[in-house]
Design a protein that fits this description.
Layout lengths: L11 H6 L17 H9 L33 H20 L7 H10 L2 H16 L3 H22 L2 H11 L9 H15 L7 H31 L2 E3 L9 H12 L7 E3 L3 H10 L3 H12 L11 H17 L5 H6 L7 H36 L9 H16 L3 H5 L4 H16 L1 E5 L13 E7 L5 E10 L9 E6 L10 E9 L12 H18 L13 H11 L6 H7 L11 H9 L5 H18 L9 H11 L16 H4 L10 H18 L7 H12 L7 H9 L5 H7 L6
Helix pairs in contact: 2-3, 3-4, 3-5, 3-6, 3-7, 6-9, 7-8, 9-13, 11-12, 11-16, 15-16, 15-23, 18-19, 19-20, 20-26, 23-24, 26-29, 27-28
Cofactor: Zn(2+)
Family: Belongs to the peptidase M3 family.
GO molecular function, one term: metal ion binding
């Protein structure tokens, strides 16, 4: 398996979540006295022999080998990590001390080969972390995160290794390499230079210490949020269900029964449960309780409160980038992204913000009018719209202005049919066929997980596998995400793709179809876009399967657009009882309301993105996270009727690791590309299934992954840079 642990030390949490990074070496094979060495010394002798440790074993079975999820044992994790680190250090040692002059093949390519053992182990780690977490795993995670950070720091700070990389980077050979090889060298060199390789003495030592401290804090932050998601469940009686759709009630009853509360109804502390409850429940006091429970995750003043952790994380990040000569963390983070600097990111967001909050004012006025009329008719004093009222009254406005009932739409959104619709789109655009694999053929980590083989529709060529883990459960983090257990490469023979989508839909009662909201259907398509990005890869080297964060959301955002195409609507959006297609008039209502509530959606997102960037451009010396959030939103004139999509104490994107830190703006940066690219399809003769535009889409925007600079890739597709005006038109905002 060649999914690489690319060199991004200091961002070890990213590696721990799933698709990983790369490694280091020492002059001799004996390990120095570091936390890594201690792990090897104290665990290795007690471990299961490596040949019997499933987590270390080569993947066997069909489809070029698959993870042995059915045999994985948590007791094997620490021994496997210890052995995997030791083996990779030896591999890197051989590269760094090679007596031959540095070349692309004996240095850069050999680094791409290193670390297969750890790469396999991190696949299992990712499942235990995100899909099947337990107190026992979290104990291991807390112990191992700083030791893994020390391990990655050793690689990034290996002077001999960096000197060889730098020699290749500055060599005459560089001029003779293919464009993808040059980019690999550039990314490898930058990975070292941006992560402490150029530091000396105490600065280098301190850099590594900070990474270890951050690894502990990121893990603690994430586990605190997961604690609050798991342990705050509201159980309702039948008398408290007023307004809730039947499908939601059945799912809530099933959730309660699974928690030994048969006869009651469970509202779990996840978005997939919170959002529909706030949309439909007539019980205002309960809406307030559910809202506060959800938005106070990590902010309850107890041992799981994250505010003090945030201050520590920000201070350590600031200190670390100052060692490298940057003024603030955001400067360092954005330097190698499309935005290039915080100013450009702020400029985009501030160009959209005024229109977004102005639209919120309009939306609130419409909602307030309905609330006033309702309370007047009941002979009661009216209320002021509060955040826990927004979704509820927005739904009433939707019905009044567009005669559109979200629950009516939901009757046509069956999870299985949506999955089939995604397969259809993948077949038309990517020429893929998805064939279900007989249960038991490929090991899975939970009975809910299903697997499909992906082949080329024309040639029958095997592309890879697609795993789907769709339902919420205890121990599974909230939200939706995609990951890859193995990525496409050809440099050591062609390797297939093992891609996975993960969601948190509420499992229905036995025999009942799972019905989802329109927003959830869009998210389903979105995450499938990430999977298609992985499955369509044509890159040669493992590290080029990575991506630039403010670009990688673009492909998945774009795929959402196919949900509203006629081909999907007419064939897959069928009523779960009658089987009849969704009526044309209802489709038209959906299209007419396509920019409805855009003020809410844009504002809650932008508030999170701007607070993130401001947190990482501010001197954090005396920062109070809770106060900073309140004062920053006040300066931005944030409407009081809603809050940030991710409040700071549970903002896992930026504090559970560093993948999105100072980079949450990337979603709207990518959305500009999305809106602009969607117009290319809308203008094409064949619309969203135009053959020529589809070929360009796959060739320039999906298959190249990170082998081409994103700006160049987009220009190759569109013939020019993207224009922000397309985004404004998409959202129904005024275009200047």
């Amino acid at each position: 398996m060649k999914t690489k642990l690319t060199i991004v030390a200091g961002v070890v949490a990213t590696a721990l979540i799933g698709c990983t990074e790369q490694s280091d070496n020492n002059k001799d094979t004996a390990l120095p006295d570091t936390p890594v060495a201690e792990t090897v010394k104290t665990v290795y002798d007690k471990s299961t022999p490596s040949e019997q440790n499933t987590l270390l074993a080569e993947w066997t079975g069909p489809y070029q080998g698959v993870p042995a999820f059915d045999k994985a044992k948590l007791d094997d994790l620490k021994p496997a990590l210890a052995i995997g680190m030791e083996r990779q250090l030896k591999e890197i040692d051989a590269i760094a001390n090679n007596p031959e002059p540095p070349t692309f093949e004996n240095t850069i390519v050999e680094m791409e080969r290193a670390g297969d053992d750890l790469s396999r182990i991190f696949t299992y780690w990712g499942i235990w972390s995100s899909n099947m977490s337990s107190p026992e795993f979290r104990d291991i995670q807390r112990e191992m995160a700083p030791k893994l950070s020390a391990f990655f720091s050793k690689i990034n700070q290996n002077e001999k290794l960096f000197e060889r990389v730098k020699a290749v980077y500055n060599s005459d050979e560089m001029k003779t390499l293919r464009s993808d090889q040059k980019r690999l060298v550039q990314l490898t060199y930058d990975g070292f230079a941006r992560n402490g390789a150029t530091l000396d003495g105490e600065a280098k030592k301190r850099y590594a210490e900070i990474n270890q401290e951050l690894a502990k804090l990121h893990t603690q932050f994430s586990n605190n949020v997961l604690h609050d998601e798991e342990n705050y469940v509201l159980f309702l009686t039948k008398e408290q269900l007023s307004g809730l759709p039947d499908s939601f009630v059945k799912a809530a009853a099933a959730a309660a029964e699974s928690r030994d509360k048969k006869g009651q109804y469970a509202i779990t502390n996840t978005r997939s449960s919170m959002d529909p409850f706030l949309t439909y429940s007539d019980e205002r006091a309960l809406r307030e309780k559910v809202w506060k429970t959800y938005y106070n995750r990590g902010d309850n003043g107890d041992e799981y409160d994250n505010n003090a952790l945030i201050a520590k994380i920000l201070k350590l990040r600031h200190e670390r980038v100052q060692l490298l000569g940057y003024d603030n963390y955001a400067q360092w983070r954005l330097e190698d992204r499309m935005a290039k600097n915080p100013e450009n990111a702020f400029e985009l967001m501030k160009s959209v913000w005024p229109a977004a909050i102005a639209r919120v004012d309009e939306e609130v006025a419409d909602m307030q009018a309905i609330a006033d009329a309702e309370y007047q008719a009941a002979g009661k004093e009216s209320i002021k719209i509060e955040p826990w009222d927004y979704r509820y009254y927005a739904e009433k406005v939707r019905k009044a202005k567009y005669a559109l009932d979200s629950d009516e739409v939901k009757q046509y959104l069956q999870l299985d049919k949506l999955r089939d619709a995604m397969f259809y789109v993948a077949g038309e655009l990517f020429n893929f066929t998805f064939t279900p694999i007989k249960p038991g053929t490929v090991p899975v980590f939970h009975e809910d997980v299903k697997v499909w083989e992906v082949t080329d529709k024309s040639s029958g060529e095997h592309i890879g596998l697609w795993y789907l883990d769709p339902f919420a459960r205890k121990g599974k983090r909230s939200g939706a995400w995609a990951t890859s257990y193995r990525s496409h490469t050809t440099f050591d023979g062609k390797e297939n793709v093992l891609s996975s989508n993960n969601s948190n839909f509420i499992k229905g009662a036995p025999g009942e179809p799972v019905l989802v909201s329109w927003d959830d259907a869009e998210t389903f398509f979105h995450e499938f876009g990430h999977a298609l990005h992985a499955l369509s890869s044509k890159v040669v080297y493992p590290s080029l399967n990575g991506g630039v964060r403010d670009y990688t959301e673009f492909q998945s955002q774009l795929l959402e657009r196919w949900l509203l195409t006629d081909e999907v609507i007419n064939n897959y959006l069928v009523h779960h009882e009658t089987g009849k297609p969704i009526p044309a008039e209802l489709v038209q209502k959906i299209k007419n309301a396509s920019t409805f509530n855009e003020g809410f959606k844009t504002t809650e997102y932008l508030a999170s993105a701007m607070v993130d960037l401001m947190l990482h451009t501010t001197d954090p010396e005396n920062i109070d996270a809770d106060k900073f959030e309140r004062e920053t939103l006040e300066k931005l004139n944030m409407p009081g009727e809603l809050v940030m999509r991710h409040r700071t104490p549970h903002f896992g994107h930026i504090f559970s690791g560093e993948g999105y830190s100072a980079g949450y703006y990337g979603y709207i940066w990518a959305e500009v590309l999305t809106s602009d690219a969607a117009e290319a399809f809308a203008e094409a003769p064949g619309g969203f299934y135009d053959e020529e535009v589809s070929k360009k889409l796959v060739k320039h925007l999906f298959s190249v992954r990170n082998a081409v600079d994103p700006a160049d890739a987009y220009r190759a597709f569109r013939g020019r840079d993207a224009k922000v005006e397309a985004l404004m038109r998409d959202r129904g905002f005024p275009v200047k």
